Amino acid sequence: MRGLVRETTLSPADLIQPLFATAGTDLRDPIEGMPGINRYSIAALVEEAGEVLEAGIPAVLLFGVPSEKDEAGTGAYDDEGVVQMTVRALKEAHPDLIVITDVCLCEYTDHGHCGFVRDGRVDNDVTVELLARTAISHAEAGADIVAPSDMMDGRIGSIRYQLDEEGFPDTAILSYAAKFSSAFYGPFREAVGSAPQFGDRRGYQLDPANSDEAIREAKLDLEEGADALMVKPASHYLDIVRRVKDETGAPVAAFQVSGEYAVIRAAGANGWLDEQAAALESLVTIRRAGADFIVTYFAKEAAGWLK
Ligand code: PBG
Ligand code: ZN
Question: Measured from the CA of 256, which atom of ligand 1 is nearest?
Fold first, then answer.
């Protein structure tokens, strides 16, 4: 009877699995702060993505871990870059898998910032140009959806315009529209080596104390051409998920980030809480708040639990 009156559903079809693509061969390199999550070289990632698809999860979100970083983050928009090569292999092996790529510079810059740095500050407009180049190189490789995670101003409009100009009108944009300056990104930054070498990201990411500002950002991205809006992190920001859903009506995604995953994993490993129950509860409550789909490191495992 509880099933008959349940208001919210959770199924593997609502989940997206993030995957870390790394250079090298035959690598399955565990990430310390995210037990159960690895960095994969191309063939291993293609295999893992096959299992994800088999579990009923429709999409993966790719992050790149390049072998070299430089000042301008050139690895991000290199046609032979780690994400571009992985996307080509993925689409060839699993044409039905939806491939989403994270578009940002921080994994590729030696200073770890999400943009081009001039005189100690991130230059918004130069960065927007480099992000558009990155998005186009991902689309050329076969990405179905590009997901800019940098939080520069005006990047959605610029990426949409340039994708259309270059012949990719059908490549969709999932905008990290309300991305907060959060301590919960810690394990991710260790995973990809992207901790800022000076300063912090508060100049471009949102203040966790603000919600009106998040709504303004979300509406701007929608006007500029975003197809779906992402709120990130998820569980501590459920009010933002709900407001973005109600006030835009657009498809809304929530990203349960590395630190949210690590907290549940660590407490579970210590026997302090029931990991499976806690993970599934976190996911259904993110859906209840209004998320149409959830990016979560639990995706593949949760799909197994939901069977
Ligand atoms: C990079 C990016 C970050 C995450 C996704 N894209 C980290 C950051 O802004 O430092 C976080 C993902 C996670 O913590 O799981 N722009
Ligand atoms: Zn970034």
Answer: 15
